[in-house]
Amino acid sequence: MIEDDERIGRLVTRALEGGGLLTERASSGSAGLDAALRRDYDLVVLDLMLPGLDGRQVLDQLRERRPEQPVLVLSAVPEISTRVAVLEAGAADFLGKPFAVAELLARVRARMRPAPGGDGGRWLRIGPVQLDLHRRRVTVDGVRVELPLREFLLLQHLMTRAGRPCSRDELLADVWGLHFDPGSNVVDVSVRRLRGRLDRPDRIETVRGVGYAYATD
C-alpha cells in the first residue's frame, strides 16, 4: 500500500490484515514505487495525492516497467474524469474515499493476482492465443506478447466467454469497474489496440449493436 495519511494507512492495514492479507506500507510515492519494482506483490493499493512523486506518476511508471502488476487506486479525488483517466491509464480498479471496509476487501480480493500453486485454472487457450492467468502473460503461437493490464483483463473476459457477445456496458463494468457510461469510446479503442497487439484481428469480432465476441475455433 502506498498511502501518506497515517490514519487512513492504519485503517486500511487493519482492514486488510483482518481479512487475512499480509500488508506492507510506504508513505511516499518514491518509496512505494521502489518497493513495487523490487518485490512481487499480488496487488498495489495506491493513493493519488502523495508528496513528491504523486500517485499518477507511480501508476505510469509501474505500467511501463511492470505492466503485469495490478494496481487499485484508493483516493478522495472526486472527479469522474480523474477516475476514468486513472482506469484508462492502467489501474485495475478505483475506490473513492470514504469507503466501506467490506467493499474495500471485496475489491482487493477481486483484483489480486491468483496465487501460484498447481495449474488448475491457470491456463486459458483458444487457437493460437494462450493466457497464463497466474502470471498474467499472453502468448500467440508460442511467442510472448506484452499487454497492459487493462488489455489483458479485456482479453481474459472475452476469451472466457468465447462465442458469446459481450456488451460494452458489461465490459466497462467487469474490466474497468465502471457501472456508468463514462462518455468515451474507451472500450472500442482498447479492442482496436488489443487486435493490433495480438496480430489476430479476426479473433475479436464486432457484434453490431451489442459489442464484441471472441471467435471460437
UniProtKB/TrEMBL annotation:
Q: Which SUPFAM superfamilies match?
A: C-terminal effector domain of the bipartite response regulators (SSF46894), CheY-like (SSF52172)
Domain OmpR/PhoB-type, chain residue ranges per copy: 121-216
Superkingdom of the source species: Bacteria
Task: Determine if DNA-binding is one of this entry's keywords.
Answer: yes
- For this protein, the DNA-binding region equals 121-216
- Do the record's keywords include Phosphoprotein? yes
Which Gene3D superfamilies is this protein grouped with?
A: 3.40.50.2300, Winged helix-like DNA-binding domain superfamily/Winged helix DNA-binding domain (1.10.10.10)
- What Pfam family is a match, any one? Trans_reg_C
Q: Which GO terms describe its biological process?
A: regulation of DNA-templated transcription
User: What protein am I looking at?
Assistant: DNA-binding response regulator, OmpR family, contains REC and winged-helix (WHTH) domain
Instruction: Tell me the organism.
Output: Micromonospora siamensis
